[in-house]
Write a structure and sequence with these properties.
about 20% strand; Alpha-Beta Plaits; phosphoprotein; single chain; differentiation; 12 helices; alpha+beta; erythrocyte maturation; 5-stranded antiparallel sheet; 6-stranded antiparallel sheet; 25 strands
């Protein structure tokens, strides 16, 4: 039982002494135990005896920064400390219905009674601290402030944002869409190319940032997509960018929706062919496989279970329908490929169509928003395409907004209908199709490379020279935010980072202050940042 022993004279040993005092009771996972109040320290049970520190840390990475770790391998347990309580709450909310697995073994996560981990004086902490420092180095190495938004990430030595993926033991078909669903859990996937080489199905996948590629490789390498087959073997590519000519079932550029499908098979650019010794033509690994449909989805069962951002689909497993070439999304009433999201558990007193347009517009171009007339805590949000809808759902479902935890799923509706002329609507339905505030309207826009999960740190841009630090701080304070830190970019004073008191504060500030008129014909641009100050 997780508790703090009051009779220990050394606080650093409280956690270990507590477990020793409770004996075998600590070995049992009690599903009916009363839940602890939220804490940024999480208690993990039933961890495999051979699990590594990096694997434990990887469970928390998609939800925020991991600040400390205590492994109790003899008890098959561990403590993980997140940087904020919000990150811990999001992590628990996600893993409660979807049990994570490490080395094919289920791991149980709950809040700890501890409010922080004090491990400075504990023995055998060297490996844990080394793992934390390695992750910190990866994160800090990508947070340079010397440049524009497109340079917020810095390529680390020996690491590329492009992964080379080989699927071994290919018993069931693996499509480009399947790969996108799996790997988008770890960040924004920009491009994918699939091909066959040496009779093996392979793929090149490009993230927006090499840090995302690092996390994905750490968590997914060696995992099975389906039970006992379709094993992922992942390495960093020598390439730093992919050049996709066609959008079809073999290749996709998610930043260029205007690309043609191509009359034949897409060809690799010469540098790619040289780097991988691949033939000039990418052949389909399933040519002639009759009946294989592109509709995909992932039932929650005992297949691949990986750390995922809130709202992402659950573990993967093969179903009988997949054997015949069709997969669906059980438990989700929406239509695969649909661009309309059902957003629930909103605060009906504070939410507006414009607010949802601004928030969901961080992850795609919102065309229409409809707040339900008779149930104002629910809304429909229509994105420009299905990929943007999936991206918004992955990043925003599970986040707190105006005191409530927002939920987003695919809708049954394929479009948001505007009210008929004369129909009472109270302004709850809005058409934003021609809004000048769309971030991704321009094909290949650099905004595609700067999509990050909600965070307490916001990236500000389009700041006029006359606006001071105090002006911007006061702007956010007047909006009800607590400003923790502020920093202008060294080489470009048109941009800055501002760190607020919580992720929820940052979300609400983005809604209220994006496109705020700063004077001199400058409107403030606000987005989430992966950086901290």
């Amino acid at each position: 039982m997780d508790c703090i022993c009051q009779n220990s004279s050394n606080p650093a040993f409280k956690i270990i002494l507590c477990f020793l005092a409770n004996g075998n009771d600590s070995k049992k996972f009690k599903r009916d135990r009363p839940p602890c109040s939220p804490s940024r320290v999480l208690h993990l049970r039933k961890i495999p005896c051979d699990v590594t520190e990096a694997e434990i840390i990887s469970l928390g990475l998609p939800f925020g920064k991991v600040t400390n770790l205590l492994m109790l391998k003899g008890k098959s347990q561990a403590f993980l400390e997140m940087a904020s309580e919000e990150a811990a709450v999001t992590m628990v909310n996600y893993y409660t219905p979807i049990t994570p697995h490490l080395r094919s073994q289920p791991v149980y996560i709950q809040y700890s009674n501890h409010r922080e981990l004090k491990t400075d004086n504990l023995p055998n902490q060297a490996r844990a601290q080394a793992a934390l420092q390695a992750v910190s180095a990866v994160q800090s190495g990508s947070l340079a402030l010397s440049g524009g938004p497109s340079n917020e990430g810095t390529v680390l030595p020996g690491q590329s944002p492009v992964l080379r993926i080989i699927i071994e033991n290919l018993f069931y078909p693996v499509t480009l869409e399947v790969l996108h669903q799996i790997f988008s859990k770890f960040g924004t996937v920009l491009k994918i190319i699939t091909f066959t080489k040496n009779n093996q199905f392979q793929a090149l996948l490009q993230y927006a940032d090499p840090v995302n590629a690092h996390y994905a490789k750490m968590a997914l390498d060696g995992q099975n997509i389906y039970n006992a087959c379709c094993t992922l073997r992942i390495d960093f590519s020598k390439l730093t960018s992919l050049n996709v000519k066609y959008n079809n079932d073999k290749s996709r550029d998610f930043t260029r929706l205007d690309l043609p499908t191509g009359d034949g098979q897409p060809s690799l650019e010469p540098p790619m062919a040289a780097a991988f010794g691949a033939p000039g033509i990418i052949s389909s690994p399933y040519a002639g496989a009759a009946g294989f449909a592109p509709a995909i989805g992932f039932p929650q069962a005992t297949g691949l279970s990986v750390p995922a951002v809130p709202g992402a689909l659950g573990p993967l497993t093969i179903t009988s329908s997949a054997v015949t070439g069709r997969m669906a999304i059980p438990g989700a009433s929406g239509i695969p490929g649909n661009s309309v999201l059902l957003v629930t558990n909103l605060n009906p007193d504070l939410i507006t169509p414009h607010g949802l347009f601004i928030l969901f517009g961080v992850y795609g171009d919102v065309h229409r928003v409809k707040i339900m007339f008779n149930k104002k805590e629910n809304a429909l949000v229509q994105m420009a395409d299905a990929n943007q809808a999936q991206l918004a759902m992955n990043h925003l479902s599970g986040q707190r907004l105006y005191g409530k935890v927002l939920r987003a799923t695919l809708s049954k509706h394929q479009a948001v209908q505007l009210p008929r002329e004369g129909q009472e609507d109270q302004g709850l339905t809005k058409d934003f199709s021609n809004s000048p505030l769309h971030r991704f309207k321009k094909p290949g826009s650099k905004n595609f490379q700067n999509i990050f999960p909600p965070s307490a740190t916001l990236h500000l841009s389009n700041i006029p020279p006359s606006v001071t630090v105090d002006d911007l701080k006061n702007l956010f304070i007047e909006a009800g935010c607590s400003v923790k830190a502020f920093k202008f970019f060294q080489k470009d004073r048109k941009m800055a980072l501002i760190q607020l008191g919580s992720v929820e504060e940052a979300i609400q500030a983005l809604i209220e202050l994006h496109n705020h008129d700063l004077g001199e014909n400058h409107h403030l641009r606000v987005s989430f940042s992966k950086s901290t100050i």
